[in-house]
């Protein structure tokens, strides 16, 4: 089936395209595609404009036209958002892969069915999985009851031995050392043995109207059961 029949190329589900980055997909020169909409409302989320948008600024065919000009110049495409898996990514990824790019997917892990489809077809190469919060704080921080869906995706990625990382966004008013250690314990229990990436909250407008916390994490109290990589 042609890409035109699988997908409405005029659909505006892309909020923005970051044309070049060396940071978002290690060892790969990449662009970032920011998809509109999300099924969570995380308190610390600073992409509220993207999440709440009913229509994006770019049609899918504009993405493909851009990528055609980047063949041989970029290594990979990062699919982010919002939550990219709210959209029909299969034909999009199929087309991107046919152009020779690797694909990294940023996701909250609530659409295991789509993850399985993309992995089974070889349409994605790497996943960054957001571990939003331990179970007892998950609903408060994300405003959803989707912890078990996230855990199911985590277990699936570990079971299939797919190349992925987990990452946590840290705002000290929301998560403390005990919460981080609980997340580490869950990961260890599920069989995860890669690094856990902890990225700091960015003090820009967000859903929770949060500002920079006056609290500080004591890194000496963080478990050493996993390798921790602190970002920004």
TrEMBL record:
Annotated Radical SAM core domain ranges read 23-232
Q: Name one GO molecular function term.
A: catalytic activity
Q: Which domain of life is it from?
A: Bacteria
* Full protein name: Anaerobic ribonucleoside-triphosphate reductase activating protein
| Cofactor(s) the protein needs | [4Fe-4S] cluster
Give the species this sequence originates from.
Answer: Malaciobacter halophilus
The alphabetized UniProt keywords are: Iron, Iron-sulfur, Metal-binding, S-adenosyl-L-methionine
Mind telling me which InterPro entries this protein's record contains?
Answer: Aldolase_TIM, NrdG2, Radical_SAM_PqqE_MftC-like, rSAM, rSAM_sf
């Amino acid at each position: 089936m042609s890409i035109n029949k699988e997908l409405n190329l005029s659909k505006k589900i892309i909020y923005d395209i970051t044309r070049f980055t060396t940071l978002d997909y290690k060892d790969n020169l990449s662009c970032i595609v920011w998809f509109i909409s999300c099924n969570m409302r995380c308190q610390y989320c600073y992409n509220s404009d993207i999440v709440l948008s009913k229509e994006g600024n770019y049609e899918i065919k504009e993405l493909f036209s851009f990528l055609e000009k980047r063949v041989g110049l970029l290594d990979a495409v990062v699919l982010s958002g919002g939550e990219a898996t709210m959209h029909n990514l299969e034909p999009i990824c199929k087309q991107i892969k046919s152009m020779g790019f690797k694909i990294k997917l940023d996701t909250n892990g609530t659409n295991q069915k789509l993850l399985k489809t993309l992995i089974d077809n070889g349409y994605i190469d790497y996943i960054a999985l957001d571990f939003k919060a331990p179970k007892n704080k998950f609903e408060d921080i994300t405003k959803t009851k989707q912890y078990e869906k996230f855990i199911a995706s985590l277990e699936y990625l570990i079971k299939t031995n797919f190349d992925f990382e987990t990452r946590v966004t840290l705002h000290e008013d929301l998560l403390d050392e005990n919460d981080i250690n609980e997340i580490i314990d869950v990961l260890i229990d599920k069989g995860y043995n890669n690094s856990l990436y902890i990225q700091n909250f960015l003090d820009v407008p967000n859903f929770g109207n949060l500002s920079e916390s006056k609290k500080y994490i004591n890194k000496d109290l963080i478990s050493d059961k996993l390798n921790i990589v602190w970002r920004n």
